[in-house]
Amino acid sequence: MPTSREQRFTILVADDSDMNRNILRAMLEESYDIIEVEDGEQAVAVLQQKEQEISLLLLDLLMPNLDGFGVLTAMNQYSWIESIPVIMITAENTNSSMRRAYNMGVSDFISRPYDMMVVRRRVKNAIMLQAKQRRLQAMVNEQIYQKEKTNNLMISILSHIVEFRNEESGLHVLHIQTMTEILLKSLMHKTDKYKLDREIINLISNASTLHDVGKICIASEVLNKPGKFTAEEFAIMKTHSQLGAEMMKGVPFQDEPLVKYACEICRWHHERYDGRGYPDGLVGEEIPISAQVVSLADVYDALTSERVYKPAHSHEKALAMILNGECGVFQPLLLECLVESSDIIQQEMAVDAVVRGDQRIMENTAVEVFQHEELNTTDRTLRALEFERAKLRFFMSASQDILFECTKNPSVLTLCHAGTQRLGLEKDMVDPCHDPRVLKMIGMEHIQELARRLQSTTPEKPAVEYRCEVLLDGVMTPVRLMCQAMWSAEEPPQYAGVVGKMIEERREEERH
Question: Which domain holds residue 72?
């Protein structure tokens, strides 16, 4: 019985013989969609265009232009062999050829002349096995994602409890986490002294959210005093670093790196490089790098945020105060990282916190998944999960601004409800760059410039801010586009699209 259209798999048949292709099509087209090519170069071209649609490759060994082994070489180079099973079709069954093909990732062989039952059974087995592996991959990815999500959620809840009691914005915690990550990545590229990698950076960034957990133990009349502290009150406030470290030492699983980093950060994030910090007066590299980075991030966010006792300083003013030593002494290399990352810090602080949080979860998920060698059969599910989760969280976030998403392949623009109403566009628009309504709304020159900037980003620095005029509520209006480029988890990473929000400039001015 033929399967329904939704359940049909696609088979690519690469063979230079018309007769052989016709025979295979006659055997398989009742149950599968068939794509035919005549040589290896055509097979590689189809794989490049339709990798995610193809469920199986039936590959002839002897073909013009590029033979079967040449196709297998390309499939290994681009990691297609991990997600697309290959059955080699040949009359040449020498042991050396079979051994070489198996070593290059071939799943099975079918010999000519064809036996219909054998062909159908081996094709079905290969496709069903790969489908099961993909389902297993998706289940494991989902479990890892949920574990990371739960871990981050619990840390976030606890840190926000501290912020709530401290009568400060919950954004402080997210800002510290984001800035810690940016500074550590910059530091990783400057030196190998601290043995930083993506996993360690994620651990320290997560642990940074607990830096002020000891404030739970500080009396609220001291904690939230609007004026200047007395000497006695300041002495009480300073105890929060020791109290936080003691709380971390009471946590089970002391061998866990996250607990270790959290303990370091809680106790020493007020130490200074010249030894004039507290509680222990550590000097220079006596201070763990985790605490040094969080200390710098904490000072920057305190300067640029409004508090009960002071207004917010500008980004430029905060940098000047830190570099001039007005907020204590920091490691010179970290100050270089601060200066070099200045633009991305300013941009990232403005990007929707939900996107940043989900991106971090995705990176943690990717790190853990790639540690499981048995899951290397495909990373397509992970890439799809990564993109869809970030997208879902972004659109769920509450905002009065216009939210949008545009994927690269396929090229689809998706708008939130407010966007469809105010821009006069549909919710989902295919090939938006060539749609007259979109061109009227923003103009081709702005589309091209924004696309250029987005594709010039990197996975480490994905934020783009762009100002232009758009047709909003029927009137050309100045807007600011806060964009987050989305990159795949593959190596090398591929630009996959963008999520962002559109903010009216005049509304921003009214706020100030």
Answer: 5-114
